[in-house]
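Issue: copy button drops trailing tokens. Both records pasted manually instead:
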Amino acid sequence: MLSISAASAIWFAPFVIPICLYVCFTDMRELRITNQANLALFVIFVAVGLIALPFDAYLWRYTHFAAVLVAGIALNAGGVMGAGDAKFAAAAAPLVHVGDLRFLMALFAVTLLAAFLSHRIAKWSGLQRLAPEWKSWSSGKRFPMGLALGGTLALYLILGIFYGS
């Protein structure tokens, strides 16, 4: 059972999942996660969080945003991750219950592996001809991390609906 409440996952999912899909798509097509997507994700938390969460939990979730943003800036400065990835992670952080952090890391690891393998298989098979202009096909070793980040958040909320407290 997850720590996120099923009710809050139900509130967030219809608004957040389309943004997650958009992030997956744009990162594969352009190798960038747009600021508009990150801002929309954060605005959804600000607006829907007031309804979906108890007020004290809602306020504490802003610390998740700050902590992940600081870590993301440091990782971006070290060349470990892109700026869009760091901003997406920070905007997504308030949507995650801190009690689910270990589960989320495992889910991210599995999603990252599946996304990487799927992307590489599509890249080296004939599937890439369906969208030949996508930058992620010809980016060398670079990988569209938004595919894994967006997928992880969407899966977390879906699992929260079914297995949330």
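Record 2 (pasted manually too):
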Amino acid sequence: MRTRIAEVDVLRGFALFGISIVNTVGITGMPVDGRSGGAAYWAYETLLHQRFFPIFSFLFGVGFGLFLEAAGEKVCRPRVAMLARLGFLVPFGALHRLLQPDEVLLSYAVVGIVVLLPASFLPGRAVLALGAVVTVAAVLVTGGGSVLIPGLFLLGYAAQRHGIEKLLGLSGRCLAAVFGVGLLLAVVLNVWQVGNGSGSGTRLAAVAGLATAATYVVLILLLLRSRARGALEVLAPLGRMALTGYIGATLMIVLADHFADLGKDPAYGMAVSLGICVFLVELAFSSLWLRYAWYGPLEWVWRCLTWWDVVPIRRRRGRAAVEGG
């Protein structure tokens, strides 16, 4: 039985950290204006906004491949199971969109069905090439945003097809070299973005966002090779419960905004503080929940719908958790 890949769960949990903060700004309707935001605005734009969403999207493509591979060992038609999985993600996204108009689950489900499922019939190299072309085209034509989803999905799926374990197993020296180049590129692009006054929706901002996201990923992988691994592994439970965490964060932010009322004026400090608090609640809940269960509450419902069966959820000793769940 396949076991989960810890690094993937840690990265997914890390992505939810930034997404919790960015969604706090978006859900509350807090004004985001470069003319009045000053340094706080540019810190938000260069360190957070559109910097974690690419990681989350890339990992969705990885997860698609892992699930398809695991399903292939369980049923004779894994793509049918995958179609059911993506199809049942649609109502989750549609309901979530009532609270969060900018949510991505509905888009993820549709793009997964329209792009990833057909791509699963292609060779791995073709998926990689297509992902690169689609991503570059999205940046050049639209300036990034949600249009990046198809390309990032394909790149994540290509990474899984080529062996995600091999990529995660690169030597520390290699990762350090990649991190150095990525950090330099990200700093240059972000400084250029600030100097040029390019907000979200521009080509420069999109490229800077992708470079920063990639640098974050390599940094986390490097830290997982160090003594910091133990501290970072606390993110893994949330990574395993990403659906529950993502939707649960929206509910907490909507509730908290009744008291914080962030929609009046730019208050980056309060928004970041609220986002971090929401993330910490997600983190604590996921860690506690997974002591007694194999799946998060919404992950369990999603899994039962996918397989059209009541899947055992209570944790028992001596059984490994299934990757791609």
